[in-house]
């Protein structure tokens, strides 16, 4: 009996390591063989990180900036300093390291919250080979870095050890995540709520909230002080929340997504103020705009609740049901060489290439639609149990239910209000894979029982 158990354990370890090494190889191959150029936000991250490497501080075009969270470009700039170069390949290798650490965290989370081998190893395998989790290693963006922090936070939540150490560390990670994605300043509430659902101890949940909030604030406060000195007002992390809220919630927005700031419908006075500022500054460094347009955006939402709801639904579609177009747009967008070769091919060769490209895109789209659908369905299914737990004193929710469901609800609420983009689902994909496999496992067991 002991030999059988030992053999089974050895097979599990061998499988886990094999998947890990294959996933590592694919990521390294991808960043070395698929050319891409940083554009838009990704280009900005690279420039800021390079400036940090060159001892020019957190600046853009020689000007202090806090348009986006400082977490990722600062971390990348420190890596550049450590290595002694700001070559973009270093950023990609940094992504690979973080991606593989995230995979380890996910495995540790899985073995902690469930004993079902099918759930553990199927979720682990899907996550290891997700096209998004491979392709974004090629992007100088927040996705891989933030998902690493997100997985680390969940790992800290599910493992029990001395709370005098656990709670402060969790608060520090939340602070780092908030400096990367400012909406994570609200995450201590999520952490405390998940803990309360698990044990129904209000004092323990309250202590967790207070401790994580304090340590998060301590992590954020130096940056807030820096912003006060640079910009003359209290800006906890970034000054783009008003900008994002404004361009995504107005009478002329028809998609729920980004639109040019100048095209937003607003009172003549507001348009004049914004225009006068933008004549002197780029929008990314024009911090004075936020107080003006944020007030306008909030007023529009209050006065147009039905239209706001429509735009929110459009943002949900943009985030969860727009396919995988972003992988081509951001992770493999340097197509000059293949475009030149394409012109030389005959019609049959061009057709073969185009068909294969479209087939690859279709498979990625289908996979993403399936994962996102299961993730949202799992959230909806478990919302019933979570609501029940709110009213029943001894009704507790396991981590395998609450962590995917509550986190999905949190991200969904944020993107419903602010902005929807395909890449914004990236941190949730491993939880969606977990949700899908749990549902499939339960269905299979139900059929087997019947």
- Share of helix, binned: over 70%
Strand ordering within the main sheet: 1-2
Mean pLDDT: 95
User: In DSSP terms, counting alpha (H) and pi (I) runs of 4 or more, how many helices?
Assistant: 19
**What is the H-and-E element order?**
HHEEHHHHHHHHHHHHHHHHH
The overall strand count is 2
Termini distance? Answer: 30 Å
- Let me know the largest β-sheet: 2 strands, antiparallel
List the uncertain runs: none
| Beta-strand percentage range | under 5%
Describe this entry's structure for a reader:
- Its main location: membrane.
- Keywords: Cell membrane, Glycosyltransferase, Membrane, Transferase, Transmembrane, Transmembrane helix.
- It is found in: Cell membrane.
- This is Glycosyltransferase family 39 protein.
- Helix content is 74%, strand content 1%.
- The protein is built from 19 helices and two strands.
- The protein has a two-stranded antiparallel sheet.
- Strand 1 (59-60) and strand 2 (63-64) form a beta hairpin.
- The longest helix has 45 residues, at 347-391.
- The radius of gyration is 23 Å and the shape is globular.
Keywords:
19 helices; mainly alpha; 450 residues; 1% strand; transferase; two-stranded antiparallel ribbon
